[in-house]
Amino acid sequence: MKINWGTAIVIAFVCFISFIMYFVISMSTNKKYDHDLVVEDYYGKELEFQDDIDKEKHAKTLTINVTWKKTKEGILIFFPKNLDYNNINGKVFLYRPSNKQFDFEIPISLSNHTLLIPDNRLLGGRWNLKVDWKYNTNTYLFKEDINY
């Protein structure tokens, strides 16, 4: 049987469309490829963005900023030693980009200038560390992408 060029073009289009439709359907139905938004209340967080910028500017005025270090016990967060740790409060938020089920938040309660995030709460891989803290009336924000 001989196929003319018009029939060959139609067969090629049908094969191409079938190929594309297979991938569209498999990507939309497979849970492996299910990706959520970064945060549930995206627009509400967008309105708070300018506050975060102001807090980061305040943090840059400090002589010593917040730092962190990976230890056997977990992540150790160091607050500036020139500040009274009794007046420091706020929260530490760890965001896991690959899976929102592992995100968690810890309130800051210090007995010295360090805060330990225990190893049992952390998985190996990439985390976004966000320390939103307040000293007296000034608010500060420390953000960093870390690999644990």
From TrEMBL:
> Which keywords does this Swiss-Prot/TrEMBL entry list?
Membrane, Transmembrane, Transmembrane helix
* One Pfam family it belongs to: FixH
Annotated protein name in UniProt = FixH family protein
Question: TM spans, by residue?
Answer: 6-25
Supply the source organism for this entry: Winogradskyella echinorum
| InterPro entries according to UniProt | FixH
